[in-house]
Design a protein that fits this description.
Blueprint (H helix, E strand, L loop, with lengths): L8 H6 L4 H23 L8 E7 L2 E6 L5 H6 L1 H12 L5 E6 L21 H13 L3 H16 L5
Helix pairs in contact: 5-6
Length: about 160
Protein backbone atom coordinates (compact mmCIF):
# COMPACT_ATOMS: atom_id res chain seq x y z
CA UNK A 1 0.00 0.00 0.00
CA UNK A 2 1.44 3.32 -0.98
CA UNK A 3 0.68 6.65 0.63
CA UNK A 4 -0.85 9.42 -1.43
CA UNK A 5 1.54 12.14 -2.59
CA UNK A 6 1.97 15.06 -0.19
CA UNK A 7 0.31 18.31 -1.16
CA UNK A 8 0.65 21.71 0.44
CA UNK A 9 -2.13 23.08 2.60
CA UNK A 10 -2.40 26.09 0.27
CA UNK A 11 -2.86 23.83 -2.74
CA UNK A 12 -5.45 21.78 -0.85
CA UNK A 13 -7.38 24.92 0.13
CA UNK A 14 -7.32 26.13 -3.48
CA UNK A 15 -9.02 22.87 -4.49
CA UNK A 16 -11.86 23.16 -1.95
CA UNK A 17 -15.24 22.74 -3.56
CA UNK A 18 -17.45 23.31 -0.51
CA UNK A 19 -19.06 26.70 -1.14
CA UNK A 20 -19.27 27.68 2.54
CA UNK A 21 -15.62 26.91 3.16
CA UNK A 22 -14.63 28.53 -0.14
CA UNK A 23 -16.54 31.69 0.85
CA UNK A 24 -14.89 31.72 4.27
CA UNK A 25 -11.43 31.32 2.72
CA UNK A 26 -12.13 34.10 0.25
CA UNK A 27 -13.26 36.42 3.05
CA UNK A 28 -10.16 35.59 5.12
CA UNK A 29 -7.89 36.33 2.16
CA UNK A 30 -9.62 39.66 1.51
CA UNK A 31 -9.29 40.62 5.16
CA UNK A 32 -5.61 39.63 5.20
CA UNK A 33 -5.05 41.77 2.11
CA UNK A 34 -6.88 44.71 3.68
CA UNK A 35 -4.87 44.30 6.87
CA UNK A 36 -1.62 44.39 4.91
CA UNK A 37 -2.74 47.59 3.17
CA UNK A 38 -3.82 49.21 6.46
CA UNK A 39 -0.63 48.30 8.32
CA UNK A 40 1.47 49.60 5.40
CA UNK A 41 -0.21 53.01 5.75
CA UNK A 42 0.04 53.32 9.54
CA UNK A 43 2.98 54.91 11.38
CA UNK A 44 5.75 52.37 12.05
CA UNK A 45 5.31 52.51 15.85
CA UNK A 46 1.56 51.86 15.59
CA UNK A 47 1.39 49.21 12.85
CA UNK A 48 2.51 46.19 14.96
CA UNK A 49 -0.32 46.88 17.43
CA UNK A 50 -3.18 47.03 14.91
CA UNK A 51 -5.23 44.30 13.26
CA UNK A 52 -8.28 44.59 11.04
CA UNK A 53 -11.33 43.33 12.88
CA UNK A 54 -13.68 43.58 9.95
CA UNK A 55 -15.32 45.80 7.37
CA UNK A 56 -19.08 46.25 7.43
CA UNK A 57 -21.32 48.93 5.94
CA UNK A 58 -18.27 50.94 4.79
CA UNK A 59 -17.04 50.96 8.42
CA UNK A 60 -13.53 49.65 9.06
CA UNK A 61 -13.01 48.10 12.48
CA UNK A 62 -9.47 48.26 13.80
CA UNK A 63 -8.38 46.23 16.80
CA UNK A 64 -5.49 47.43 18.95
CA UNK A 65 -3.71 45.30 21.53
CA UNK A 66 -3.93 47.77 24.44
CA UNK A 67 -5.59 51.00 25.52
CA UNK A 68 -2.35 52.94 24.88
CA UNK A 69 -2.80 52.52 21.12
CA UNK A 70 -6.44 53.66 20.87
CA UNK A 71 -5.66 57.38 20.63
CA UNK A 72 -2.81 57.00 18.10
CA UNK A 73 -5.07 54.75 15.99
CA UNK A 74 -7.93 57.24 16.13
CA UNK A 75 -5.60 60.10 15.28
CA UNK A 76 -4.43 58.16 12.21
CA UNK A 77 -7.99 57.37 11.07
CA UNK A 78 -8.53 60.34 8.72
CA UNK A 79 -5.17 59.90 7.06
CA UNK A 80 -5.80 56.16 6.75
CA UNK A 81 -9.23 56.70 5.15
CA UNK A 82 -7.77 59.13 2.66
CA UNK A 83 -4.81 56.95 1.75
CA UNK A 84 -6.96 53.81 1.37
CA UNK A 85 -9.18 55.73 -1.05
CA UNK A 86 -6.29 57.32 -2.93
CA UNK A 87 -3.89 54.38 -3.20
CA UNK A 88 -6.23 51.39 -3.18
CA UNK A 89 -9.57 52.87 -4.27
CA UNK A 90 -11.05 51.46 -1.09
CA UNK A 91 -13.82 53.66 0.32
CA UNK A 92 -14.17 53.78 4.09
CA UNK A 93 -16.75 56.11 5.64
CA UNK A 94 -15.77 55.55 9.26
CA UNK A 95 -13.10 53.84 11.30
CA UNK A 96 -13.91 52.33 14.65
CA UNK A 97 -11.09 51.45 17.06
CA UNK A 98 -11.56 48.72 19.66
CA UNK A 99 -9.22 47.23 22.25
CA UNK A 100 -8.55 43.50 21.90
CA UNK A 101 -6.07 42.57 24.64
CA UNK A 102 -5.83 39.03 23.30
CA UNK A 103 -3.77 40.46 20.44
CA UNK A 104 -1.03 41.61 22.81
CA UNK A 105 2.29 39.91 22.37
CA UNK A 106 4.77 39.11 25.07
CA UNK A 107 7.33 40.99 22.98
CA UNK A 108 8.65 43.88 25.09
CA UNK A 109 9.98 45.67 21.98
CA UNK A 110 6.42 46.65 21.06
CA UNK A 111 5.21 47.58 24.52
CA UNK A 112 4.47 51.25 25.03
CA UNK A 113 7.29 52.91 26.92
CA UNK A 114 6.11 54.66 30.03
CA UNK A 115 8.34 56.60 32.32
CA UNK A 116 7.30 56.33 35.93
CA UNK A 117 6.13 59.63 37.30
CA UNK A 118 8.44 60.77 40.12
CA UNK A 119 6.76 61.22 43.47
CA UNK A 120 5.82 64.81 44.19
CA UNK A 121 6.39 67.10 47.15
CA UNK A 122 3.14 65.89 48.70
CA UNK A 123 4.63 62.38 48.86
CA UNK A 124 7.76 63.73 50.57
CA UNK A 125 5.63 65.61 53.10
CA UNK A 126 3.53 62.49 53.78
CA UNK A 127 6.67 60.44 54.37
CA UNK A 128 8.07 63.06 56.77
CA UNK A 129 4.74 63.26 58.64
CA UNK A 130 4.63 59.46 58.93
CA UNK A 131 8.24 59.43 60.16
CA UNK A 132 7.43 61.92 62.95
CA UNK A 133 4.50 59.81 64.15
CA UNK A 134 6.39 56.49 64.29
CA UNK A 135 7.92 55.35 67.58
CA UNK A 136 10.53 53.02 66.04
CA UNK A 137 13.59 55.28 65.59
CA UNK A 138 15.13 53.18 62.80
CA UNK A 139 11.94 53.18 60.75
CA UNK A 140 11.42 56.90 61.37
CA UNK A 141 14.98 57.63 60.25
CA UNK A 142 14.53 55.52 57.09
CA UNK A 143 11.32 57.37 56.23
CA UNK A 144 13.02 60.75 56.76
CA UNK A 145 15.87 59.69 54.44
CA UNK A 146 13.33 58.62 51.84
CA UNK A 147 11.44 61.93 52.19
CA UNK A 148 14.70 63.84 51.70
CA UNK A 149 15.53 61.78 48.61
CA UNK A 150 12.09 62.44 47.11
CA UNK A 151 12.56 66.19 47.69
CA UNK A 152 15.94 66.04 45.93
CA UNK A 153 14.33 64.55 42.80
CA UNK A 154 11.99 67.51 42.40
CA UNK A 155 12.73 69.74 39.41
CA UNK A 156 13.83 73.28 40.12
CA UNK A 157 11.12 75.81 39.31
Amino acid sequence: MSTPPAISVGHFLDQVRNSTLKSLLSQARRQAGLEAQVRELLPAALAPHVRVGGFRDKRLILLVDSQEWVLPARMSADLLRGELARRHRFRVEAIEVRVAPELARGDARHAPRRRPRPPGLAAAESLATAARSIEDPRLAEALMRLAAKVQQTQPDD
